[in-house]
Amino acid sequence: MSFIEAAGLTKTYTPRGSKPVHALDGLDLAVPQGTVTALLGPNGAGKTTTVKVLTTLIRPDSGSARIGGIDVLAHPQQIRPIIGVSGQYAAVDEYLTGFENLDMVGRLYHLGAKQSRIRAQELITLFDLEEAKNRPVKGFSGGMRRRIDLAGALVTRPQVLFLDEPTTGLDPRSRLGMWDVINSLVGQGTTVLLTTQYLEEADQLADSISVIDDGKVIAEGTSDELKASIGGQRIEITLVDPGDSSAAVEVLRRFGNSEPSVGGEGRELTVDAAHAPEALQHVLAELGARGIRLFDAGMRRPTLDDVFLRLTGHVATEDDAPALQTQGRH
Amino acid sequence: MTTTTTTTTAATTTRAAASPIADWFSDGWITTRRNLIKIKRVPDILVFTTLQPIMFVLLFTYVYAGVINIPGSSYTEFIMAGIFAQTIVFGSTYSGSAMAQDLKVGIIDRFRTLPMSPSAVLIGRTNGDLFINAVSLAVMMTTGLIVGWRIRSTPLEAIGAVALLLLFAYAFSWVMAYIGMTVRSPEVINNVSFLILFPLTFISNAFVPSETLPTPLRVFAEFNPVSALVQAARHLFGNIPPGAPVADNWVQRNPELTVIIGIIVLLVVFVPLAIRKFDRVSSR
Ligand SMILES: Nc1ncnc2c1ncn2[C@@H]1O[C@H](COP(=O)(O)OP(=O)(O)OP(=O)(O)O)[C@@H](O)[C@H]1O
Ligand SMILES: [Mg+2]
Fold first, then answer.
1. Strands A83-86 and A160-164, how do they pair?
2. Which residue in A153, A163, B135, B171 could disulfide with A84, CB within 3.0 to 4.6 Å?
3. Residue A129 CA to chain centroid, in angstroms?
4. Residue whose CA lies nearest to ligand 1 atom number 28
């Protein structure tokens, strides 16, 4: 049975003077205990809204949500002790030091005074926050705030962890560190729901990925399943002379099993292929026979980028993640 | 609550099930401490709350004392309760901008996902105002005593005056906290509170006897809650000369009772409203 279960969640916002926005439009979700599920979706897909509903911050217009069998909407006060949350924007007190922030969170989770201080120190060490330990958070970089906020989510070693874009704005080293932390928590049985715009992150961390767009889950499965769902391997060739483009398309169409796509000013051609190695041999032989010169040729499995593009019609690139979001909002 | 018993992972042991009352006190203390630390780290707040009232006391005693004549008393003695009331009413607006600011930076979302009492953040915030107001009242009273203000009542009555002033401001902090969460913009809150509080404190008996005002303003001044507060404080500090005229209405004849009723009404209405609001807001 799933530890986090949401069914038919809807939430509509009607900003003054504009059309209603369906932030959630019948979203279903099931996260088995002790696994990591990633919500993957473009800006405005409804990732944050989903996390806010599950973490008791907002009430959906309709639908139901349960965590560990407890009804989130009916008993939010029973949910809060078992969850840890790190929202999209670092929620730290600017005037408190890193240590004071974590200690305050510990005390408000009702750890005893001593226990709370011990745990704060452990997290300072774990997240490499010594520098921020005794200085007010104000004046620290976005990445540092982010780490303090993430540490805040782990104060009680919660049963369920919600991380909304946990690594947006972290430098590569901190990001790898964060992945380690998440992996070790899962090793201890924590259930994790994270959102991300980084396909690589979903690939690395998640047992299961739910692709969401316009407030709905439009595909779910493991990373491999999602990739397989949009076809097997594909053949990619790059021509030396774009003038050969139409002849090459003809060849690819004959040995592939999809309509070839053409990019890179007519030089980059791609086609799906059921038995890619064999098809590639035929393609190369035929192109050679016609005297078409190649700059590059190869086969690859689809990436999550392909999945994303195919399913949502948007391209997800790292550029989509607004760098400013990590600065908090001032 | 069955919070710790259902834990299947290696959860950090929470403190042996304390009573809800003990948790409530602990939550309130932790959030109060948060606000006290902020006062310590942002000295502007304390400078503002101490220097500004000193300035007011000096300005009014030395600039207007010669102009405004209070029969049977000195202007310094008359004005002091007015300055006290004005300063601490303004002091309670911090809760408004602070709640709006907390929403803006998103820390309210952190608090709302913690298993704490939903009133704790507000209790901590209004306690912070109470502390600031207590400090500025002490500073103003000391300055007042130096420039010639005198308490001409019993210590018990004087304590009553201090208590009414602080409690009224405390109740007003809850109003401002509610408004802060509704308006959600710290800047707007500041502007709005100036727009409302300046007329409220100036069209009152705080700085001039209300009889001297033109009729419409006089009527407003006599029923203005700030006037009742000023009148009550003046009365309890013994700063109303015997035989001074008292406006012929219930409010002005029973200022202490009016203030007490006002405090109770504000708290009864706005404490639940603010807590309910807190339980629903989320940043963005
Ligand atoms: N409080 C609000 N008022 C009005 N509209 C809102 C509000 N919160 C969310 N929305 C809208 O709902 C939609 C979903 O928002 P949400 O924040 O869940 O998206 P997201 O997937 O987290 O996007 P991002 O990647 O940008 O963080 C967006 O169109 C957003 O503008
Ligand atoms: Mg988001």
1. parallel
2. A153
3. 25
4. A44
State how far the Cα of A34 lies from the Cα of A184, in Å rounded to an integer.
11
Instruction: State how far the Cα of A165 lies from the Cα of B80, in Å rounded to an integer.
Output: 55
Global pTM reads 0.85
Please state, in angstroms and rounded to a whole number, the distance separating the CA atoms of residues B174 and B275.
10
pLDDT band at A304 (very low <50, low <70, confident <90, very high): low
Distance CA A41, CA A315 (A): 10
A71: Cβ–Cβ under 8 A, 6 or more apart, which residues?
A64, A65
- Spatial CA neighbour of A158 closest among A176, A122, A182: A182
* B30:A156 CB<8 A: no
Per-residue model confidence (pLDDT) at position A313? 64
Phi, psi for residue B154 in degrees, rounded to 5: -75, 155
Q: At what angle do helices B155-183 and B94-105 cross, to 10 degrees?
A: 30
pLDDT at A230 over 60: yes
Residue B25, both tokens: 């006190």
| Burial group, residue B110, by CB count within 10 angstroms (0-12, 13-18, 19+) | buried
> Would you call B158 helix, strand, or coil by DSSP?
helix
pLDDT value at position A186?
84
Which of A53, A77, A93, A192 is the mutation pick for testing B, counting most B CBs within 10 A?
A93
pLDDT > 60? residue A239: yes
Which segment of A129-138, A213-222, A267-276 scores lowest on mean pLDDT?
A: A267-276
**Long-range Cβ contact pairs of B192-196 (< 8 A, separation 24 or more):** B193/B90, B193/B93, B193/B96
Q: What is the pLDDT of residue B156?
A: 97
Give the pLDDT confidence score for residue A1 in this predicted structure.
67
Q: At what angle do helices B225-236 and B155-183 cross, to 10 degrees?
A: 160
What per-residue confidence (pLDDT) applies to B269? 98
pLDDT at A104: 97
* pLDDT at residue B6, as a whole number: 34
Which band of pLDDT confidence, cut at 50, 70 and 90, is reported for residue A71?
A: very high
Place of tokens 């009680």: A156
Q: Which residues of A touch B105 (CB under 8 A)?
A: 89, 91, 94, 328-330
Query: What pLDDT, on a 0 to 100 scale, did the predictor assign at position A323?
Result: 34
Q: How far, rounded to the nearest angstrom, does the alpha carbon of residue A275 sit from its chain's CA centroid?
A: 31
Domain range list for chain B: 20-282
Separation of alpha carbons A153 and A143, rounded Å: 15
Residue labelled with tokens 């620290």 = A140
Judged by DSSP in three states, B101 sits in helix
Residue B17 confidence (pLDDT): 59
Interface of B with A in 1-40 (CB under 8 A): 1-4, 6-15, 18, 23, 26-27, 30-31, 33-34, 37-38
Atom of ligand 1 nearest to the CA of A24: 14
Task: Return the pLDDT at B27.
Answer: 96
List the structure tokens of A310: 């195919």
Sign of CA dihedral A324, A327, A328, A330: negative
CA distance B34 to chain A (A): 7
Is the separation of the CB atoms in A307 and A234 below 8 Å? no
Task: Show the CA angle centred on residue A83, arms to residues A82 and A88, nearest 5°.
Answer: 175
Give dist(CA A236, CA A299) in Å, integer. Answer: 6
| Residues in CB range of A7: below 8 A, 6 or more apart | A28, A63, A64, A65
With b for 16 or more beta-carbon neighbours within 10 A and e for fewer, the A169-193 pattern comes to: bbeeebbebbeebbeebbeeebbbb
